[in-house]
Amino acid sequence: MTTTTAKTTGNTNGKTQDPVLVVVQLSGGNDFMNTVIPFTEGIYYDNRPLVGIPEDKVLPFTDTLAWHPSAAAFKRIYEQGKMAIVQGVGTEHASRSHFRAMDIWHTCEPEIIATEGWLAKVIREIDPSSSNPVTAVNLGRGLPRALAAPGVTATSIGDLDNYGLMSGIELKEERDRDLQVFQRMYTPAIGSGPVMDYLSTTGRSVITGADMLAEAPRKYKSTVEYADNPIAKSLRDVARIHTAGLGTRIFYTNHLGYDHHAQEVPGHAKLLTELTVAIEDFMQDLRDHDAADEVNILVFTEFGRRIKDNGSGTDHGTGGGAFLIGENVKGGLYSEYPSLAPSDWVFGEDMDFTIDFRSVYSTILNQWMGIDPVDIVGGTFEQFNPYTRTMV
Is CATH 1.10.1060 correct for 20-377? Predict the structure, then answer.
């Protein structure tokens, strides 16, 4: 595998401008059809009498597409030209199982159960000797499968403010709790052997990274007032770590609650407000610190929802969507919105996919991170061009 060396020109906060990826996972299956709404399609309203957003409430941004009214912050980002909407993201090996679908996204292995996460392979490329324990940082409990592989170091923290105040014993206990979460999550899928191998060889650098991460809150000052919700707090922590110049290249965080089988109308609106405002605040925070140019945000979910509502929400579907956000993103629509014609529905009730998720990864890896994607995603996939400028 070949790696392109990133440019390292200094900026005002003393960091080098190596490309940084921030991944925001929307867990549960975000309803892309109610996020980017085909508001001129009668089929949309015919099949969604309960959850369909009335045409006079949507926020149009093209002649045929509109944002959910709770995603006004995304509309502003899009109008600034800082967001690429990737439509119809999925795979021909789609699964309606949360665990399996997310596992496919995390490992790029749609046909087998893999033991290495795609971002863990990226960490190995960036830091093959594991010299920096905070090359990759997860904000949240446990460790995402995407960051896990034998011999690869990734640090996971639940609360940055408390993290730097913990004693060595407390840090060990927190690390052990996170590893136990990982063990419970992944033993059923890949077996106890690979899990125990992983636990014995990685995740042990938490204490080493603690002293580094403890400095981040002390150095950080901001006029941005983040909301009091988990995704806003996590992205604030990302900003604090990134602006501290610790060399973190991959950040990962998780926004929970998108499995809206029931009560979707209020639930989805609440989550979209939290998500979109948090990302808008995060981007402003980075700009204020002259630390935005090197950051690209990927927002993804494991699958979309079915075209028809179920009387209270929507059930698991297939074709969904992803978002790339950043100062150097070439805003616009990418790929095609899946056909809503009933003859094109998958399983008789789902939107199909129009671009493989590994194309999204390949584009980010090659064009943004400067890393050959073939071995990481398991093949060659068509790329698109969502950047005006990159660090590589």
Answer: no
